[in-house]
């Protein structure tokens, strides 16, 4: 059997094991079937008039979603986008036009640099500079030391690839001030901004109020089907709607995405602080369990999670660890870790841990037992 066939077979086993597991820290988007997604969408109840006409080109329920987002973030307006990639491309392009400077200062581990196929330069004609290449948030001193003018400072909150890292509130304020001292506008990549209130100790409007524009996702923390929003001043958001049309984002009908996003705002958003608290318990229990298990070295990063997601590092081959987690899921019905990769520090495998509703029932003892079962299969 070829390597590609073996990989496909393992992917199928992983998906089947995750779906069948009775005990898990989260339910991933790859586990749901089409039928399950449809059933969940039809569940209700919704705080929206289901007898209202279906949307056409962004009216109706889409406008209601935009209103809710602007209200939650304390901005003048918000625009729905079919994807975060499109939303951020449009935001950064609009700011470049307004500032007259096509240079964007951002982290090399941020989403536009890692996952968008060089779209900033290829599609939008923008150029980037990196205040730092270290796997952490930049410092105000590094922003101040960038050697050329830049029109926009983009901050990813949290910085996912580095371990879902957030600055402290004081550090964030200083970063924004450093950007403004460089006469740059501030854009927050807030795909996961919803759960940042715990770390910052501030409400969403105060956090979003530091920036000139904010992007938020509806599926990465809220469990929506897809979609994103750009929020900011009314004239800026109106301009982004023009570019949304030009980029192909003026979609005829979007009520499934809008309805699931509204459900996420109603049901998941209030629960996110409890997920963060539980993730911190799980992280501490993982450290203790690995120390007691005989594993020569391990790390939970960051030591106290900044959100409900964090990384675990182990000095083993990532395929070996993925297979161990697969066997644990198949044999015990418990999913502790999912996929591992070599994307961490040299010689270490890394995985992301996500704690949501299904993980709220876990105790420290449950984590210890799951780690013991996992380690025995490495």
Automatic annotation (TrEMBL):
Belongs to the threonine aldolase family. Residues 58-288 form the Aromatic amino acid beta-eliminating lyase/threonine aldolase domain. Its cofactor is pyridoxal 5'-phosphate. PANTHER family: L-THREONINE ALDOLASE, L-THREONINE ALDOLASE-RELATED. It comes from the Bacteria. This is Beta-eliminating lyase-related protein. Pfam families: Beta_elim_lyase. Keywords: Lyase, Pyridoxal phosphate. GO terms for molecular function: lyase activity.
């Amino acid at each position: 059997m070829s390597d590609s066939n073996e990989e496909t077979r393992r992917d199928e086993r992983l998906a089947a094991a995750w779906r069948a597991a009775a005990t898990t820290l989260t339910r991933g988007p790859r586990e749901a079937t089409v039928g399950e997604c449809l059933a969940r969408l039809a569940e209700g109840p919704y705080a929206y008039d289901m007898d209202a006409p279906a949307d056409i080109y962004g009216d109706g329920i889409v406008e209601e979603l935009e209103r809710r987002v602007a209200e939650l973030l304390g901005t003048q307006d918000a625009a729905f986008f079919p994807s975060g990639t499109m939303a951020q491309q449009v935001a950064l392009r609009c700011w470049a036009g307004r500032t007259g400077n096509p240079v964007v200062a951002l982290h090399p581990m941020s989403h536009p640099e890692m996952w968008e196929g060089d779209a900033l330069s290829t599609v939008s004609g923008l150029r980037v500079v990196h205040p730092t290449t270290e796997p952490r948030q930049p410092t105000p001193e590094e922003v101040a030391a960038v050697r050329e003018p830049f029109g926009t400072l983009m901050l990813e909150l949290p910085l996912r690839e580095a371990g879902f890292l957030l600055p402290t509130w004081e550090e964030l304020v200083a970063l924004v001030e450093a950007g403004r001292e460089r006469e740059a506008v501030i854009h927050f990549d807030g795909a996961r901004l919803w759960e940042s209130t715990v770390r910052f100790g501030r409400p969403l409007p105060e956090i979003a109020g530091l920036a000139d524009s904010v992007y938020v996702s509806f599926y990465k923390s809220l469990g929506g089907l897809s979609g994103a929003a750009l929020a900011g001043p009314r004239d800026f958001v109106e301009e982004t709607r023009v570019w949304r049309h030009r980029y192909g984002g003026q979609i005829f009908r979007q009520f499934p995405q809008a309805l699931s996003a509204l459900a996420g705002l109603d049901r998941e958003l209030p629960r996110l602080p409890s997920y963060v608290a539980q993730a911190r318990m799980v992280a501490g229990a993982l450290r203790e369990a690995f120390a007691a298990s005989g594993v020569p070295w391990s790390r939970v990063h960051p030591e106290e999670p900044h959100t409900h997601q964090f990384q675990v590092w182990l000095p083993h081959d990532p395929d070996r660890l993925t297979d161990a987690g697969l066997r644990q899921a198949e044999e015990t019905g418990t999913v502790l870790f999912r996929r591992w990769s070599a994307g961490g520090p040299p010689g270490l495998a890394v995985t992301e841990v996500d704690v949501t509703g299904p993980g709220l029932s876990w105790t420290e003892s449950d984590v210890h037992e799951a780690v013991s079962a996992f380690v025995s299969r490495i």
